Amino acid sequence: MHCTFLNDAPAWCLECEGQLKEIEDQLENDPSLSEEERQSKIKSEKIKIALEKLKKANIQKLIVRVFTDDGSSKTVFLDETMSCRGVTSMMIEKNHLEYKPMLAILEQVPDLYMERIVEDHENLVNDVLLNWKRETTSRILFSERKEKYGIFKNPQNYLLSTSSSQAAQQFAEKSKEVLIKEFFSDTGSQIPEVDGVLWMKAEGKKSWKRFYFILRASGLYFSPKGKSKSSKDLVCLVGFEHNHVYHGVSWKKKYKAPTDHCFAIKHPQLQQKSKYIKYLCAEDYRSCQRWIAGIRLAKYGRQLLLNYNQTQQELREYKVRHISETSSITNGMPDTVSLSSMHSTVSSHSSSSGSYTTADPVVVHHYRSISPLKSYRYRRTHRSGEARSEICLPTPGRKVWKLTVKVPMRSLYFITVGQVAGCFC
Question: In terms of domain of life, where is this protein from (predicted)?
Answer without folding.
Answer: Eukaryota
